UniProtKB/TrEMBL annotation:
Protein name, as recorded: GntR family transcriptional regulator
Cited InterPro entries: GntR_C, TF_FadR/GntR_C, Tscrpt_reg_HTH_GntR, WH-like_DNA-bd_sf, WH_DNA-bd_sf
Source species, domain of life: Bacteria
CDD domains: WHTH_GntR
Domain HTH gntR-type: 3-70
Pfam families per record: FCD, GntR
Assigned keywords, A-Z: DNA-binding, Transcription, Transcription regulation
Molecular functions (GO terms): DNA binding; DNA-binding transcription factor activity
Amino acid sequence: MTGRRADLLHDKIEDLILTGELVPGERLDEVSLATRFGVSRTPIREALMQLAASGLIDLRPRRGAIVAEIGPKRMVEMFEVMAELEAICARLAARRATESDEAQICAHHQACAAAAAASDEDAYYYENEAFHEAIDAAAHQEFLSDQTRALRRRLKPYRRLQLRARGRVQNSFDEHEAVVRAILAHDAEAAAEAMRAHIVVQGERFTDLLASLETPRGARAR
């Protein structure tokens, strides 16, 4: 139960950071957060550790938790590496996926479809994570999966935030469709290319992501 509560608190604090209510450099006090959310300090501490693992906050000696900031250049670099890692996963999944793996990928794809049809961004986000993890599993490459999950955790809040851009959920689902078709057709190169295009942040998508990060902070400053 404590773990589930920590997960919920993680998402709430993450939202406060990404919407600009908690700004880069701001100290996150465990007591204040526990009072705010009506919980003990234990799940708050666990949530902060999760946020630190994703790189959204820094845990500093004697200063505690501080909201971190990832600059645009660093963010683009991280998404570029993420795109290549996930492209490899998709390529291997197209070559190695079992019938059971394919069934799992399709099941999560259909769950994404339901969330997209309902315009439920939060539900789509969680189903999207499960979809990508199913492809990781289908690659049957444990070291690759470990590295992919680690970077995905670092980018988790930004991947979540970009889904709030207008039309992004439906576009994301359409991109998933291309990945699934390639995997089921055992077309490794097509699967890799479709996944790479799905993950990499560039052009208008990058502009939208930056706008979603900056606008709340500007609104708060006014």
